[in-house]
Specification:
2 helices; single chain; about 70 residues; mainly alpha
Length: about 70
């Protein structure tokens, strides 16, 4: 990691760089909020797909001849 990157990280960290101000709204807030909602929806879809896959696996196991 370059020294300039470390310095930038320290300056941007609240409390360490002398920036104890509250973060104000930025032009990216709407996009960040939209991405957060999209990630939440993606997580729900992945959970449902996993549950459905498990149910299908259980059905296939029940139908196997013994």
């Amino acid at each position: 990691m370059k020294v300039s990157t470390v310095v930038l990280c320290v300056l941007l960290m609240p409390g360490l760089g002398g920036c104890d101000r509250e973060v104000e709204e930025t032009v990216f807030d709407d996009q960040v909020e939209t991405l957060d909602r999209a990630r939440a929806v993606e997580d729900q879809l992945n959970e449902r797909a996993e549950a459905l896959g498990e149910r299908l696996d259980n059905i296939e196991e029940d139908e196997e001849p013994e």
